[in-house]
Amino acid sequence: MTYTILVTGASSGFGLMTARALAEAGHTVYASMRETQGRNAPRVAEIAQWSKEKSLDLRTAELDVQSEASVADAIAHILKDSGRLDVIVHNAGHMVFGPAEAFTPEQMIQQYDVNVLGAQRVNRAALPYLRKQGKGLLVWVGSSSTRGGTPPFLAPYFAAKAAMDALAVSYSTELARWGIETTIMVPGAFTKGTNHFAHSGKPADAHVAAEYENGPYAGVTDQALKGLASLEPADADPAEVAAEIVRVVGLPFGKRPFRVHVDPSQDGAEIVNGVADRMRREMYYAIGLQDLLSPKLNG
């Protein structure tokens, strides 16, 4: 079965890989990104050429997850352009690296705005349609950092991804009776093959950052990054995340897993999430709402 799919943050990394892989699987895919007529114009042209050469249905859409108007316009455009929307891949995100104290509150807000509120804006624009349709799938691209190993100097990003995970967990049961499924994809720390680390933001308070870097935490930045890289197997491929998303989308309704880990470094998130997700299920049984753990087939 083929679907119409929106992938947010699809100008590079997991988003672009996922959009291409889904198109190759036969779906109609909208690779959304900011500034399609500005800095991302070359990417838009590249995607159009790729789609034409391969005779696949990969399209682009202007969508800034930090703008409610932009999100609303993008959803309206997709519905008008293709006549439907079946799957949303919440992938848009941004990483920062540095001592937590050196980030301003405004920088922290920006992390939450992209990683958490961005998904909320997309949901508020798209869910009325999906609920009326009585069927759909939300795929949330999370992070093993929410419950796995947490090396230093990534606090704002880790906090935002943990908030996104919590939001996804709550949404899953609140949407089940509407026939909308949830899968949380949990990638590990892929240090190669994406721009995640290369494009990470820096703390605005350079003075505080310097006190850490020139004081007792001298060398910790290099040690943390090299340590993460050393845990990663040589054959670790971020395209595995895209492949897993394609697999999940292709599964029959009601058979899609709640959570999927793609973590070559095995940082422990799968073990801890297993316990947390079991306790969640037990709670729903205890309060008599266990039907919310599985999507309802409507129609």
Question: Your description of this structure?
Answer:
- The protein contains 9 helices and 7 strands.
- The protein is 47% helix and 12% strand.
- Helix 4 (105-133) links the parallel strand 4 and strand 5 (136-141).
- It has a single domain, classed as 3-Layer(aba) Sandwich (Rossmann fold), CATH 3.40.50.720.
- The model has no long low-confidence stretch (mean pLDDT 93).
- It is an alpha/beta fold and 299 residues long.
- Helix 1 packs across helix 8 (239-250) and helix 4 (105-133) runs parallel beside helix 5.
- Strands 3-2-1-4-5-6-7 form a 7-stranded parallel β-sheet, with helices on both faces.
- This is SDR family NAD(P)-dependent oxidoreductase.
- Pfam families: adh_short (PF00106).
- It comes from Paraburkholderia madseniana.
Specify the overall morphology. globular
Within CATH, the superfamily carries the name NAD(P)-binding Rossmann-like Domain
Largest sheet: 7 strands, parallel
Number of strands: 7
- If classified by CATH, what would the architecture be? 3-Layer(aba) Sandwich
Count every helix, treating DSSP H or I runs of 4 or more residues as helices.
9
Organism: Paraburkholderia madseniana
Protein name: SDR family NAD(P)-dependent oxidoreductase
InterPro entries: NAD(P)-bd_dom_sf, SDR_fam, SDR_oxidoreductase
Pfam families: adh_short
